[in-house]
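Dear support,

I submitted the protein below through the web form. The confirmation email said the job was done, but the results page showed an empty box. After a refresh the structure appeared. I'm attaching both so you can tell me whether what I see now is the final result or a partial one.
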Amino acid sequence: MSQADWLSHLLQIIIVTGQLEVRCAYGAPWRIIWPRAAANEIPYHVIVKGRAIFEDPDSRTVHELGGGDIVLLPHGSAHMLHDGSGETPISTHESTGSAGWMLSENDGGGEQLDLLCGRFFVVPPHDRLVRNYLPPNLVVRAREKHGEEDISSASRQLSGLVGLMRMESAGDRAGGRAILNALSAVLFTLVLRAAAEAEKSTEGLLALAGHPRLAPAIAAMFADPARPWKLPDLADLCGMSRATFMRHFQDKLGRSALDLLTDLRTSMAANELKNPRISTEAVAETVGYQSVAAFRRVFAVKMGMTPGEWRRQAHNVEPSGSDRLTSE
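What the results page shows now:
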């Protein structure tokens, strides 16, 4: 793994799994309403074929989506997808296949939609990183035509991934559920890669990672969060003065470099504390704190509990769920 591979470093700290839950085969008019997701869940939708209007009332976002487009909601906002006609939706009927996901259909004769819906599950407390540093929703377009010169682009790779998901969800073959869930986990990483490559993000971690001058600092912090980074060191990596670096970093991320480092270290510590054989003192040193008292203080502020309380809770947490979609 190269030092510049911030995304792999991030996904070593946070644990994300994916699950396809619903395949929607509708004819217009149709409408789907999704409630707010649980704190550790990120809904996603893949437009396999057709067109959909996506609305996120929390961020007042509206997108028109087409075949191959993918939308993620890192903040788990309640949202809606519909055909855009404004007409009363046709009632749906559902069935569950042996692969475990649900097929939702209607008898609409209008424009046809083929839609895959699922969720990513982020192991706590890493959902805090997701909500703090990713935008409320991410829309990635994977349907553009590509030449041979950009065969390795994330957008091109997403097109291939969507094709695999479509084929697996269309059949009822052995291992289908496991394959779809594995592909869903890959989808999360590729969407983040594509969003960073597109350099369309105006704020948050993706904006920093896609910023040619600030990217070296992000890569360095993710490669070695425990290093005693000083602002002048990070500024030098970016060829900026300390003041300029601080201003640009804050403008893009909405938080300081120290905030990001502290959150990364806290997440790393939360992982380490799950191992009962590692002392709190050893964890503190591993994540970059020379003083265990300072570590305990920072951890308590960020997590709302002491390292010992987190260690005990981590062994008694059960995954939470949320309601499935409501179609009309």
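Response: this is the final, complete result; the empty box was a page-load delay. Confidence is low (pLDDT under 50) at residues 318-324.
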